[in-house]
Amino acid sequence: MGTAALHADHHDHHGDHQHHKESFISKYVFSMDHKMISKQFLITGIIMGVIGMGMSMLFRLQLAWPDEQFGILEMLLGKWAVDGKLDPNFYMGLVTIHGTIMVFYVLTAGLSGTFSNLLIPLQVGARDMASPFMNMLSYWFFLASSIVLLSSVFIETGPASGGWTVYPPLSALEKAMPGSGLGMTLWLSAIALFIISSLLGGINYISTVLNMRTKGMSMNRMPLTIWAFFFTAILGVLSFPVLLGAALFLIFDRSFGTSFYLSDIYLEGVGALENIGGSPVLYQHLFWFLGHPEVYIILMPALGITSEVISTNARKPIFGYTAMIISLMGISFLSFIVWGHHMFITGMNPFLGSVFMILTLIIAVPSAVKAFNYLTTLWKGNLRFTPAMLFSIGLVSFFISGGLTGIYLGNAAMDIQLHDSYFVVAHFHLVMGSAAIFGMFAGIYHWFPRMYGRMMNKPLGYFHFWFTFVAAYLVFFPMHFMGLAGVPRRYYQFTLVKEFEVWMDVNVLITVAALVGGFAQLFFLFNFFYSIFKGKKSVQNPWQSNSLEWSAPVERIHGNWPGAIPEVYRGPYEYSRPDREEDFFPQYIADDNSPEVLVPEGETVVPAAKDPEEVESSVFFAAIKRVFGLS
Amino acid sequence: MANQIQTTYENQPMWAGGRSPFNVSYGKLMMWIFLLSDAFTFSSLLVQYGAQRFSNVQTAVTSKWPDPASIFNHFPMMHGLHLPLLFVSVMTFILILSSVTMVLAVEAGHRNSKKEVQRYMIYTILGGAAFLGCQAWEWYTFIHEGARLDGNTFGITKEGYSHLKSVGFGDHFEWEAGDRSNGPVPFAALFFIVTGFHGFHVFSGVVINVVVYIMTVRGVFERRGHYEMIEKAGLYWHFVDLVWVFVFTFFYLI
Known about the structure:
- The complex is a heterodimer.
- By secondary structure, chain A is mainly alpha-helical.
- Chain A is 63% helix and 0% strand.
- In chain A, helix 8 (224-255) packs antiparallel against helix 9 (280-314) and helix 16 packs antiparallel against helix 17.
- Chain B contains ten helices and no strands.
């Protein structure tokens, strides 16, 4: 059989690879080993994260002390901060690039690129990704994209400044603002490269999960991390192309004189431009068709990581394994049909608005299922407060407190008041910003031994967690009240608006908290890079975890397992089984006397064909018959 | 060792791991996923078209949409004749024929018949190249007639004008046969972008087919023992044809 032979080829290929002597270039630079690529993604993501966070601290300085002069800013930024005062146009650029970096480069590529690459082959039992070459390309496109984006900060007209959503006409007309010139072109090029990278990665992740699971690793024995990465990849593969379409039209509008998004615009009081017939709202539709799934592309890997970390460190099976999968599925499906809730104020038909509103509010159901399942998993567990566990619990906290305000914003009537205010900033920074970055930290602390064979320092991890956690709430919680009072986002200087002057004290508090939170990341950076070289050597399974990645030796070899790939005998969350001496029971340990707890065996392996009579007499058919008066 | 997956391949239950649940190689699976993704790209382009064409049926722009049959009525070497949509029908026919020869190539690949695979791949490549040539001529004529990305000189249909008149828009100008003013601007731009994006796909498809053809001639697949690469190229080629059916319907028929 042709396909079977192909499989054998493929695996042999990887088997051979272990024995090759690798050069520096093929091992560290153009690596095709998923573990090395995941490290490349992680370190690039961390660098981008530091830059994005640094930008946010710069504009927080401006918001807290608008009249102060910071000599250091002029030293750092030159003509963008003449006399130590941030230039308004550069302020807009900082806000835009901060958003772009955090959303796409840190929390999409940095998070899902790192952990999908690391964990998918290791946790499903594969020697590498389905296509290691495409995997390598995915990283290099991502790096090229990062470089293009960062280069836009160094050009004379400054980076793209229309907000991370780059709505036309602001982004389409070069004359609209300085950042809409070359900076915007670079932004669009960077995003196009990013989409290619994300597509190459996503296609790989999906086919690896579907095709390359080891024997016994049925879909309902996969760790929830893999389920989360799987759905994330599907969302990415289906929604990023639409952004490509949107960007394509924008590029044509900007450079080739078309008017897809432009219509009847007056600039500086002078009559309309040449453009007629387009509609800027259409860009918003196309953008948010990506934009909303993107929120879940960011959040779902973090949720998957949290499931794994919480179950391991509570020494309990995850509560509601199937419910977790179904809720991920529900969130993924719903995320495609709710994009209109970003556009309630575009003059949308109120009826359509209410449809989007209802669909949006339905997302609260699967999200609540997840939140409650985390809490019930923690309930009466033997909690081990490792740094990863703390960050996971932190994620649950942010997910709940940020999710609650989502119910306000999803409501069309409320949103018209709250749109583009600090309430929105607070909402999404808690629910997808802080929550996702906490998931990422949890993943790093948890799988650091798997990546580098060493442990990260625990006390430093605790410091890092508490400072970051408290700082994040101090930064984002007060913003809710500012937003409710009508303070709009992206304003340069609140002292210029009399009504907003009362909020200056709050702004100072937020900025101080942001600075403290920012400096707390130094604990992490030091811990991370120090531990790579000098950390305590790790044992093979430091967290006494069940899943397959810990069955591989501490030495990281190309091909993951020196001998045969281990087989899988049960689900990933069988902690504290009463019939076992140890409180964990790894997936890869065979024991015929211990049936699987989560799913009874007879049902999963061979689903018995139901005979037609039985089907007809089922309750469902009985109900249908009764409805149609057949019985 | 690594073949453990393969040895248990046949008798494993569908989804229990250790085998592909769809009995396909990872490469083919990837192609399917990519095509799904590409379908969304084309959808976003066609949605853009639909939104500009149909969203506000009552406005001047949409009801002034020119009648495609009166614009695409040229045929090479038959200058001056009114042959609506004849040329584009020929193009479509060529593309669909090339899909048929692609199917034949895939089928020949299943029989490991190198010679037939070569023959049908040549036909497919020729079909694709002919389509691209036709498209170039179509674009050339269209541009020659005055179509530009930032403008439109195709005026408005008589029905469109009488509709405009009935809703009070057409008062400031009179319609006469051959009038080429007041056309909707996005018409030509959308045509160029969507058919151009499709043409780019056909072009990549032809390149892929040429590469696959060369690999066939050099006996790569013969040594490999199977012609699966032809199938993968075929999937892509059929997808490109399928998309053309939609593009054709939207731009020429509606």
